[in-house]
Amino acid sequence: MMESYQAYGDYTEVMALTELLITNAARDSLGTTVVTINDEQFDLAQPWRKVRMIDLASEATGETLHPSMPVDAVRKVAAQHKVKTEDHWGSGRIIEEIFAELAEGTLQQPTFVTGHPVEISPLARADRNDPHLTERFELFIGAREIANGYSELNDPIEQRVRFEDEQKSKAAGDHEAGSMDEDYLRALEFGMPPTAGLGIGIDRTIAADGTTLDTFFRHLGLGSEVPANTPTETQSTTDENRGVAIMPTTLVIDTDAAPTSATDVYLRLHLLSHRICLPRTINLDGAFGLLTNVAWTSIGPVALNTLDDVRYNLLRQGQHLVVHGVDKFPRMTDYVVPSGVRIADASRVRLGAHLASGTTVMHEGFCNFNAGTLGASMVEGRISAGVIVGDGSDVGGGASIMGTLSGGGKEMVTVGEKCLLGANSGLGISLGNECIIEAGLYVTAGTQVKLPDGTVVKARELSGVNGLLFRRNSQSGAVEATQRTGNWGGLNAALHKN
């Protein structure tokens, strides 16, 4: 993966950079700008075609379309061409769907599609000549989206309006709509220069129906920390056994904005598991909706609708197909094996987990994506999505830490340093440093906890306090919290020399 950002740049410069990188990569590696993918020839020689999305949609329908048109008029055009729409979509979103259904498949040779409607581009700056459009582009080659970039919107007032529109869309039923981000707005209020960015990744596995099954990034960088001399793949391959194409991919992402594609999600998961980004520092809103259920097998990811055929074809060749799981997220170790860790059962750690050096995950331990450890830790229980465990802490056998996926919870649980979660315990609040949860005790935010002075409080009021021991009184059954004395012994250093 190569990623770059340019201050005081705009989308035209990102387009030029994308064009130059891909053309030069093809020329330097193949000696030509003409490449063959699945028996189709593509000429990457500059200049590449540039055309607005609304013009392609208009050409495909024979009607002049623009986001400023009444939504009913645009919806009528869509219906005439059998393009399905949702009731909560505005004119801009419907035009995008018309483009996707009627025009996108015709874009075989390199084409920059520009001028996306504001409605579908909440983070992009408005076009300087048409306020209904944005300074954004998508690159298509072989009728597939290869890149996405835009001039960053750096006006905090306009950005707030865009976020509010996104919230309205989400309330109306649009699961892809973003959320209000007050931290981002506050940062904009301090000031942000015009910024442009670029990312290049390799090895995207695509099923016969065009679904992205996975993406593998061999080289990673963030911001200015881009690896030198990063090789760039330009040639696609096919895997006949699985019936998939493996294609090079170029994309532009903003880690503060929600992901926009399956490949975008995979890049973020790689950044976490490579320990380039910490859990909860990059936006993964809507990631589940962008990924598809995949059969993770002994020969790689397989589309579920082809699994029986793949299995049968392998049997005819004398081979046995092993299905390790059916899920949206793969095992981390199939993509990333961080240094200094021990993982007894690879199926128990998802791609996107962040395991610090010195971490040991035992057979019954589990770590979800966007979660993990910050130092040497023993994991024999469950670290759910969004959970962070501090250096020197022990998550005992069968213990469970509540995450943000089940039940719609928003609480981000952090376990401090040198904490001990006893066997079969549970936790729904954050712990400060050097805390203990007694074996078998489940402490949720609403648990009634008795303090040494006799007062009773909800456990959430003790969230993040250092040096507490949570226990259940064996006579009264009351949950109690006391200030700890002594030392529970800490981790066995010999078990964490990985």
Task: List descriptors.
498 residues; 10-stranded mixed beta sheet; 9 helices
Architecture overview:
The chain is α/β, with parallel strands linked by helices and 498 residues long. The strands form seven sheets. A ten-stranded mixed beta sheet has the order 15-17-20-23-26-28-32-33-30-31, with no helix packed on it. Strands 1, 8, 9, 10 and 11 form a five-stranded antiparallel beta sheet that branches. Strands 18-21-24-27-29 form a five-stranded parallel beta sheet, with no helix packed on it. Strand 8 (195-206) and strand 9 (212-216) form a beta hairpin. Helix 3 packs parallel to helix 4 (91-103). The model has no long low-confidence stretch (mean pLDDT 87).
Sequence-ordered SSE layout with sheet pairings:
Blueprint: E1 2-7, H1 11-30, E2 34-37, E3 40-43, E4 49-52, H2 53-61, H3 71-80, H4 91-103, E5 111-114, E6 136-141, E7 144-150, H5 156-171, H6 182-190, E8 195-206, E9 212-216, E10 237-239, E11 244-251, H7 262-273, H8 287-290, E12 294-297, E13 300-303, H9 307-316, E14 323-327, E15 342-343, E16 353-354, E17 360-361, E18 366-367, E19 371-373, E20 378-379, E21 382-383, E22 388-389, E23 394-395, E24 400-401, E25 414-415, E26 420-421, E27 426-427, E28 436-437, E29 442-443, E30 448-450, E31 456-458, E32 468-472, E33 479-483
Parallel strand pairs: 4-5, 15-17, 16-19, 17-20, 18-21, 19-22, 20-23, 21-24, 22-25, 23-26, 24-27, 26-28, 27-29, 28-32, 30-33
Antiparallel strand pairs: 1-8, 2-3, 5-6, 6-7, 8-9, 8-11, 10-11, 12-13, 12-14, 30-31, 32-33
Helix pairs in contact: 2-4, 3-4, 5-6
